[in-house]
Design a protein that fits this description.
The chain contains 10 helices and 5 strands, in the order E-H-E-E-H-E-H-H-H-H-H-H-E-H-H. The protein is of the alpha+beta class and about 230 residues long.
Length: about 230
């Protein structure tokens, strides 16, 4: 059975995850990471996608992206995948697929979850125990938001801009969000949404997305459906 189309709406952010095939490495050195970011920057501009945050791990990538039209993110990821794999296979003398099947994605409620998802992405190296703090990992958007470097790939979201009236205020407020790790409940919600290609947001957001897409955007219920009382008595 064919998979349903990706949940993607114009001007609604998406949390995107692309993993290496069989969880194997997709980056073999810093040159590879720089080339991936170049591919991302060029394809995002060509396809009308705005990148708010990213992290390049050893065997997967997280992105926070807003498309200007439905379908743009999927096309962007296809562009990047083909170009990156072709060059990496040539450099390292390898063949075959580098990426794991279909890209995972989750619609994100801007009002309630966008900055939370942003934190989730940039804190990934900390949770993986690669570094002790997000600012110590060079291959994410975090240093751009702290003002330590300028990353031409990044466009801050309105929620970040609302953190302060000046650049210094915004940087300080943003940095303070990372003082306390995300709660386990929040981590579970984000992971459930991305692993099931569902939406993450309030009930109002869910209903809005479902009305526009004409289908459910919620994570599937776990386990077998509960039987009604009548069935139990039979």
């Amino acid at each position: 059975m064919a998979r349903p189309p990706r949940l993607e709406l114009a001007n609604v952010p998406l949390h995107v995850v692309h993993r290496g095939n069989n969880r194997a490495a997709c980056f073999f050195g810093d040159v590879d990471r720089r080339f991936y970011l170049k591919c991302l920057r060029q394809s995002a501009a060509a396809r009308g996608c705005v990148v708010h945050a990213y992290v390049l791990m050893t065997n997967h990538v997280h992105l926070l992206v807003t498309p200007t039209e439905a379908g743009a993110v999927g096309t962007m990821m296809q562009d990047i995948g083909r170009r990156y794999v072709r060059v990496i296979n040539t450099i390292y003398g390898r063949t075959g697929s580098l990426w794991e099947g279909r890209v995972k994605s989750s619609l994100i409620d801007s009002e309630r979850y966008l900055l939370t998802c942003h934190r989730y992405i940039e804190e990934n190296p900390v949770r993986a125990r690669m570094v002790s703090r997000a600012a110590a990992y060079p291959w994410s958007s975090h240093l751009h938001y702290l003002g330590s470097r300028i990353d031409p790939l990044i466009t801050p979201c309105p929620q970040y801009e609302a953190l302060g009236t000046s650049a210094d205020e915004r940087r300080a407020a943003f940095g303070s969000l990372f003082a306390v790790p995300l709660e386990a409940r929040v981590l579970d919600e984000i992971r459930s949404a991305i692993n099931t290609d569902s939406a993450l947001g309030s009930e109002q957001f869910m209903q809005y997305a479902e009305a526009r897409l004409g289908r459910s955007v919620r994570p599937p219920q776990r386990g077998r459906p509960r039987k009604c009382v009548t069935e139990k008595l039979l």
